[in-house]
Amino acid sequence: MASPSEVVPTRTAGIGSVLTWTVAVLACLWLALCTAVGPLYWKDSSIARFSWLNGFYGVVSFAIYLGIVMLLVRHGRGAGRSRRRRHDTDAAPSGVRRLAVRIATRTAGWRRVLSRAVIHGSDAGWKIMLVLLIGWMWIPLTLVSAFGADVFSQFKEFSWAWNQWTGVQQPYIGFFSFVPMDIYPTAHYLWPAHATYLTDQHNIVLTVLYGATGTVSRFLTGGNDWGLAALSLAQLVFAAFCCASTANRFLNSPWLGRRHAWGAETRHPGRPERGPATSPVDFSRPERGMSFRPTTAIRVWTRTIPRTPSPDFAGSGMRVLLLVFFLTCPLVVFSTISLTKSPVFAFAFVWWFGIGYEMRRTAFSPHDEHATRDAASRGGHPRSMRRSSLVGLAVSGVVMLISAKYAWYIILITAVTVVLSDRRRWRAILVSMVLPALLVHGGIALLISQGLIINGDPIESRGVQLQQIARIAQRNPDAIPQKARTEMAPIFNLDQMAEAYTPYDADPVKSSGIQSKKVSYRWRSVTRDDLSRFNDAWLRIVLSDPVTAIDAFLAKSFGYFNVCDHPYVAMDYYVDNDYVRNSTDWIGHWNSAGRSSIVGFARQWSDIPVLGWVTHGNLYVTLTLLVGAAEVVLRRWRSLAWHIPLLALMGVMIMAPANDFERHMLPVVFVALFLALQFHRESRGSGTAAIERRHAKER
Questions:
Q1: Best CA proximity match to 249, nearest among 363, 392, 357, 119
Q2: HSE value, Cβ hemisphere, 13 Å, CA-based, for 605
Q3: Lowest mean pLDDT, pick from 79-93, 147-161, 239-253
Q4: 34-47: string of b/e by CB count within 10 Å (b at 16+)?
Q5: Which three-class secondary structure string do you get for 398-446?
Q6: Position 639 pLDDT exceeds 80
Q7: Considering just the CA atoms, what is the radius of gyration of the chain in Å?
Q8: Digit-coded pLDDT (tens) for 308-351
Q9: Residue in 402, 243, 342 with CA at minimum distance from that of residue 657
Q10: Do 397 and 352 meet the contact criterion of CB atoms below 8 Å apart?
Q11: What is the C-alpha separation between 567 and 449, in angstroms, rounded?
Q12: Is 95's pLDDT higher than 70?
């Protein structure tokens, strides 16, 4: 009979398993729901018309997603790995296997040379960056730059501010005036009493940087084009640095040093921080001491243990896969020169994510080389991170903060989760994450409070609510209570909202755009007190027709989690649009036919069933969510502490103004392969530990 001390842990483990699998099932249900309702909203229908066919789509997709999670969990636990190895060793070679062995033997020489060349060409960050720069050089040479309306709004903001600083008289608040802040629009109650033309709509730092570059370009060349080209080229170099820095961390583990990375394997594949493994130089001559064991990379070249991968040093296959992805995926290629805030944030996030991986892998180290595994895990102390990594963590966080407002929340959430998972790193987190975030966010808040810049309109973050109100006003206006109409009247014109409503984009509802737009948002006359009653009015309207409200929410969000949905706005939009063609002096005419061909090829690739999914951001969002669900089941809390930002970014997608807008998915897309590599490495460590425990029991 089991003792009480044995029963309690068993019950706790059982409850924990139920809870973690519940989270995984809920994630799969959400993905299945988004897949099932896709055909309805493609036809602008309603969930009220959910049919047996939609149910079939949901059941099949749920089975697929749950099956993927179960396979990931099985892989994460190392189940069946030793069985496969025994089967491969004991089974008699078949004809196909003999043919495979013959081909492998005859091609071993050139494969070994090619593998060695790939590894040597990517064993340092500067080499990877050089490969990316050479591979991306065709982009600025053929496309020069890519942009939309936002960069011209930032140019206008800075120009109006520059005119004010130089004494030029300009209109400000007035019924007949129309200044850059009216384009977004920003409610007039947010404007200071004295004339101020700079806003935090696109983040003030980027606005000043872009605007100043455009001003210098106009002064020197008479147009914006050279400024746009310079900004795009600088962004491409920054993108290459960020991607190379993170790739170097995941592929080469530079914090271990070249001697460890190239010349030794770790004691335990899942815990590289426990130091390198050693073995006697000569078992018969112990006085000769110990030597480091060779790494997998060297083993591959010497063909000693070709099937054993290294947890710290990636093989040539993973290196090629990563480089091919970054060099060919349209999402990455077009983002390198697209002048919007999202790519800047995304590439900075890649850099930040890589440093987080380094912090995760260096969480503990033994007190001495001969410490046992258990002693190392119980009594280990944090290994000091490289100073360059701590500086990089701070700088990448600052770039994220100056490019996207929601970076403030992502950094703070991550700081809390990381400190909870590794409390001994609180000083590094405080200095490299929290303090820079407070300085940047506090500095911008101070400028706003002093009336030097105009704060962004809070209505920008209410996309879901606006879509729900507008859809009900369009599809079922009689359901709206009179009290809600009264509370909404000073804020929005419900009739104009109904007319401007589109299921996939909230910008028309909030009157974003040029002067001839529909005035549904009363930004000129609304007050802070009026806006305080917005939530109450929204709740009354939603409760009056909950089905239509659910339709509005799903129609604006499902595309981010439906791999079959085509993007509403793909990244190729910024490469070839009216702003590029008609609002530039020479960029729109530079290689015009080639620009059209490149964009056309990307769109044709995107339209290919299944094969085109690799060019869609929602594929990577879906896979990331599934990997996260598997990590929850496997209870990898330390890794999840650094992966929580990915879940927060999915929340940003849902709150974004438009459905399946690819630029909002870029951070998740760029780190998806790194996430998969980390999951595989940690899974291999778990599998090795399980095999060792099994062998110990057998002995």
A1: 357
A2: 15
A3: 79-93
A4: bbbbbebbbeebbb
A5: HHHHHHCCCHHHHHHHHHHHHHHHCHHHHHHHHHHHHHHHHHHHHHHHH
A6: yes
A7: 28
A8: 445 567 788 889 999 999 999 999 999 999 999 899 999 999 99
A9: 342
A10: yes
A11: 39
A12: no
Residue 269 has pLDDT above 50, yes or no: no
Which two tokens mark 212?
A: 């100043």
Measured CA to CA, the distance from residue 344 to residue 157 in angstroms comes to 20
Quick one: DSSP state of residue 456? P
Tokens of 208: 């000043």
Pairing of strands 278-280, 290-292: antiparallel
**In sequence order, what are the residues at sequence separation of 6 or more whose Cβ sits closer than 8 angstroms to the Cβ of residue 626?**
27, 28, 31, 65, 68, 69, 72
Residue whose tokens read 């200044």: 179
Contact residues for 195 (Cβ-Cβ < 8 A; gap 6+): 164, 170, 172
Token look-up 């997608």 returns 653
Pair 305, 299: CB distance under 8 Å: yes
In this predicted structure, what is the pLDDT of residue 282? 55
- Residue 455, pLDDT above cutoff 60: yes
Residue 693 has pLDDT above 50, yes or no: no
Of 127-136, 166-175, 371-380, 427-436, the least confident: 371-380
| 397 DSSP 8-state letter | H
In the DSSP assignment, the letter for residue 382 is P
Residues 679 and 78: their CA atoms lie apart, in Å, by 12
